[in-house]
Specification:
The structure is a single chain. This protein is about 20% helix and about 35% strand. The chain is an alpha+beta fold. Strands 1-2-3-5-4 form a 5-stranded mixed barrel.
């Protein structure tokens, strides 16, 4: 029973992927942000959907590095628009928190 519960928790956690990158563009009208992803497994320019609050936050980070989780365990499909589940922004040189 304990093993089964651990497996279920582990599966739920694997539905996210942690990425880092530079915010290039933000579109409030489409709730999308373009990020130049630096994480090796997903490197390159990608578009992500985000909720209203995250889009407003991302506008303050144009040209700056951010970290975030997406709604997938991988980003193999470069044509898919993944959703940012949560931002993980820490203060750095010139960055607002």
């Amino acid at each position: 029973m304990v093993i089964f519960v651990f497996f279920c928790i582990n599966e739920a956690e694997s539905d996210e992927l942690f990425l880092t990158g530079t915010v290039l563009e933000v579109s409030q009208s489409f709730n999308q942000a373009v990020v130049n992803v630096k994480t090796l497994s997903c490197r390159g320019k990608m578009t992500f959907k985000a909720d209203d609050e995250d889009i407003r936050t991302l506008q303050g980070f144009l040209g700056k590095d951010i970290s975030f989780f997406i709604d997938s365990a991988n980003c193999n499909d470069k044509l898919k628009t993944y959703k940012i589940k949560k931002l993980h922004i820490k203060a750095s040189k010139g960055a607002r928190q």
